[in-house]
Amino acid sequence: MTRFLQQSLQELRRWVPEVDTQLRASLTLACIAASLLVVRCDREDDVVAADVPKVEIRAQVASAQTATAIASVDGRIATVDVAEGTTVQPGQLLATLNNASIERDLAHVRAQIAVAQQRLRDARRPIATSLILGDAGARERASAEILKNRETKRERYRELFKTRDVSKEELENAENEYAAALRDYLAEKERASIRVVQTDTSLLQLELDKARADETVVNERKTLLRVVAPIAGVVTRVHARIGESIFPRDPVVEIANNATVDVRGAIAPELVRYVRAGVPVEVKVFTVPPRKFTVPVKGVVPGPSGAVLVVDLPNPDGVLQVGQQAVITVK
């Protein structure tokens, strides 16, 4: 700043040598003010350039990924298929339950399906089958011809009986033959007029569809009797015991996955604005020897006295353990 003022005064003396002392003093003050303004602007630029400081946050390995397999329905433990220390994969069977009400409902809907199917088959079976075949007309004509002959014989025997040329028994036999022929003729005529009759099965089909839908619902409930692993990892604790009663949301098995660990560090409130999810940070964990990682920020969890910075670190060999100290550097 002094060099700048000296240069400014020299310029004033060279270009304005005739000005009086008062004017010269005024110009000197103006030059000093301008110099101070320039210096202030330079300092503001330095402050802006240093607006993103290097932040180091003390942290520690907080926890591995954990999950608890819980019961979705009430029941009784039937089998436990894992032990503590067992490595499991997502979806692997951990335990099974028994639930009498689900088994009862399943048996009930299956019986309803069987009944509905039988009723539908019976309704679809024709009430009568058509007997109008190729010789149906011939059979009716033959029975009509027999009836006519029996009627003629009956009338002739009636006349002969009046003159006592036939006995009463012979007349009765002729009457019976006519009656039998009439019966056969009427039966053949009725058979020839029979048609296939079908029953409306739409309502029965709806009942069957409803029973099948109920079966689907019960089967979905039955799948809840299988407790499976929500994540891959190692079984750290088995809560269930065979024969014990269990209720919804009761823990069955706890699983930990050490392939990834969380590192957490507290951030002062004035530093929260420099950190956000996705920003790459450098993490140094004080193992022996120390390990360094460059990973993105997983999240910033706000709290009453600041916030907590959370990052995930790979841990395929299981060296990183809960409680180990670390430093997170935000550049």
Brief summary:
The protein has 331 residues and is of the alpha+beta class. Among the domains are: 48 residues; 83 residues, Elongation Factor Tu (Ef-tu), domain 3 (Beta Barrel), CATH 2.40.30.170; 67 residues, Helix Hairpins, CATH 1.10.287. The chain is 43% helix and 27% strand.
Helix content: 40-55%
What is the string of SSEs from the N terminus onward?
Answer: HHEEEEHHHHEEEEEEEEE
Give unreliable regions as ranges: 44-50, 129-134
Name of the CATH first level of the domain at 55-64 and 258-330:
Mainly Beta
Please state the structural category. alpha+beta
Main sheet specs: 9 strands, antiparallel
Would you report the number of β strands? 13
Describe this structure in words.
It is a single chain. The protein is built from 6 helices and 13 strands. By secondary structure, it is an alpha+beta fold. Among the domains are: 48 residues; 83 residues, Beta Barrel (Elongation Factor Tu (Ef-tu), domain 3); 67 residues, Orthogonal Bundle (Helix Hairpins). Strands 1, 3, 6, 8, 9, 10, 11, 12 and 13 form a 9-stranded antiparallel β-sheet that branches. The chain has a 4-stranded antiparallel β-sheet with strand order 5-4-2-7, with no helix packed on it. The longest helix has 29 residues.
Set down the secondary structure blueprint.
Layout: H1 2-15, H2 21-49, E1 55-70, E2 75-80, E3 87-88, E4 93-98, H3 100-124, H4 136-162, H5 168-193, H6 202-223, E5 226-228, E6 233-238, E7 245-246, E8 251-267, E9 280-285, E10 291-296, E11 299-303, E12 306-314, E13 325-330
Antiparallel strand pairs: 1-8, 1-13, 2-4, 2-7, 3-6, 4-5, 6-8, 8-12, 9-10, 9-13, 11-12
